[in-house]
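Lecture notes, continued. The same structure-token format from the folding unit now serves as the input rather than the output. Read the line below as a description of shape only.
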């Protein structure tokens, strides 16, 4: 549910880009980069619908938030949907595994209603 009371349904985008236009290119402010058709979403775990507030973001930024001692209390993210993504730096699968394992060691893996994370084509 959004702040105004509305809900938001996540739908498949149909197309996406891993890299946009370079910031030196003035078109970066008005145009998308080269887009590709996306693959259908796949889900793991039980087939059920979940709802809750979302928490997460770019895993490299969450790493810096943790280093600064600014992570939310585990109880504050209870019942949330954990959203994780990586940056255009495209860390290796092993690096992402270590970040997720660190979040789990802090208790974050037990509390979400759901978990969502895109997979870069180069990480497959």
């Amino acid at each position: 549910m959004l702040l105004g009371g509305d809900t938001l349904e996540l739908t498949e985008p149909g197309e996406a880009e891993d890299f946009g236009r370079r910031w030196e290119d003035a078109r970066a402010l008005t145009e998308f980069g080269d887009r590709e058709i996306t693959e259908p979403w796949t889900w793991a775990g039980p087939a059920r619908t979940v709802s809750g507030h979302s928490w997460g973001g770019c895993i490299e930024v969450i790493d810096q938030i943790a280093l600064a001692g600014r992570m939310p209390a585990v109880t504050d993210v209870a019942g949330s949907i954990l959203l994780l993504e990586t940056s255009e730096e495209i860390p290796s699968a092993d690096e992402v595994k270590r970040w997720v394992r660190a979040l789990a060691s802090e208790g974050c893996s037990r509390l979400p209603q759901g978990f969502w994370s895109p997979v870069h084509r180069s990480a497959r």
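Point for the exam: The beta strands are 15-16, 36-37, 54-58, 81-85, 114-116.
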